[in-house]
Amino acid sequence: MKKKVFTVIGLMSGTSLDGVDLSLIKSDGYNEFSSILDNYYKFDDKLHETIADLRNKISNYEGLTEYSNELNDVERKITLFHGKVINEVLDDYKDVDLIGFHGQTIYHNSGQKISKQLGDGNLLSQLTNKIVINNFRQKDLENNGQGAPLTPIFHKTISKIISQKKNINFPINIINIGGISNATTIIKDENDFNLKANDIGPGNCLIDEWVKKNSKFRFDENGNIAKSGKINELILNQAKDNFMISSYDKSLDVKDFDLSFVRGLSLEDGCATLTDFTAYLISNGLKYINSLKENSNGHYLLGGGGRKNNYLIELIKKYLSNTNIELKNIDEFGFDGDFIESQAFGYLAVRSYLGLPISFPETTRCKNPTVGGKINKNF
């Protein structure tokens, strides 16, 4: 029996806090997937600054209560922004079945089983007259999972498409360099496709925060600021000695990292040093993945905004120079690396709606496959 193919809008607002990625896709929640439209909508400066200021205030669980009024206000503004851009798309594409609404992460702590994404699914359903799926992470946390990463099941689907269309063999690793870097390994055995996923280090979070604090820019475009600076080798080596990711089985949050070790450096030198430190940690994560016996000679495909930071990628490749790891952009394989996550949350919305699991012991360390997401219908 042929499975129903849904038309879905997927939405992602990442740790850069700069705006919303929107993807219009078709999927059955299993192996069927096609992309119709991808758009990016930038937050205005005021909303960006408001979200950033609020995230900086909330350093622990108590902050969610202490700043509850501000959280409610910002959540409404974020939801209204999403509603506006969705309705612009619905003017041209009316036959949308579902909306996958990730929201804006403001606090994530897997140990406390809390992951707070700002975004009112019930209000968004009212604004768009569509079924909205949100709150994707909570059920996984309640099932002893890390709440992240959630994209691996989508990576599995697109890896099959990539393998077939581009004639490349498994294992295939899809690396997302967003605020945090994570990696999905897809391995094909005789009977099925096996998944393994890990957060592997910071992505853009340290670099973005430094640039925002010390310039008028939101990020280091192409790595040009870092490339114009000089790496402080003493500070860099101290940071390498003092910081270690103890386990790749735990999810990471932007607040697991801080800028204190580059305090006092110039914009350019601080950016250069942070970029090298980020590259060092990502490369260590990739070496760990490559050390897994079943993943030898795998393909490594890069997605996320960090892949555009040419200097960061150059440094990662330098750290990997004595390995057999060859990094390629996923764009070379027919997928826009800017929109993998927004497409993923459209896909996850279908699976949630159908009652299919979206996280697994091998991806988030949950006890058993977990059906996540909350279904909102308010029209």
Detailed description of the structure:
The chain is an alpha/beta fold and 379 residues long. The protein has 2 domains: 6-145 and 341-376, 2-Layer Sandwich (Nucleotidyltransferase, domain 5); 152-325, ATPase, nucleotide binding domain (Nucleotidyltransferase, domain 5, 2-Layer Sandwich). The protein has 13 helices and 12 strands. Strands 1, 2, 3, 4, 5, 6 and 12 form a 7-stranded mixed beta sheet that branches. The chain has a 5-stranded mixed beta sheet with strand order 9-8-7-10-11. Helix 1 (45-57) runs antiparallel to helix 3 (68-90) and helix 7 runs antiparallel to helix 10. The longest helix is centred in the C-terminal third of the chain and has 25 residues, at 267-291. The chain is globular.
CATH fold topology of the largest domain: Nucleotidyltransferase, domain 5
The residue-averaged pLDDT reads 94
Please mark out the parts with pLDDT under 50 across 5 or more consecutive residues, or reply none: none
Query: Which CATH class of the largest domain is shown?
Result: Alpha Beta
Number of helices: 13
Per the principal axes of the C-alpha atoms, what is the gross shape? globular
Helix content: 25-40%
Q: Tell me the count of domains.
A: 2
Rg, nearest Å: 20 Å
CATH architecture of the largest domain: 2-Layer Sandwich
In short:
The protein has 379 residues and is an alpha/beta fold. Helices cover 39% and strands 22% of the residues.
Indicate the topology:
Blueprint: E1 6-13, E2 19-27, E3 33-42, H1 45-57, H2 62-66, H3 68-90, E4 98-109, E5 114-118, H4 121-128, E6 131-134, H5 138-142, H6 152-166, E7 172-177, E8 180-188, E9 193-202, H7 205-214, H8 224-228, H9 233-242, H10 267-291, E10 299-303, H11 310-319, E11 327-329, H12 340-353, H13 361-364, E12 374-376
Parallel strand pairs: 1-4, 4-6, 7-10, 10-11
Antiparallel strand pairs: 1-2, 2-3, 4-5, 6-12, 7-8, 8-9
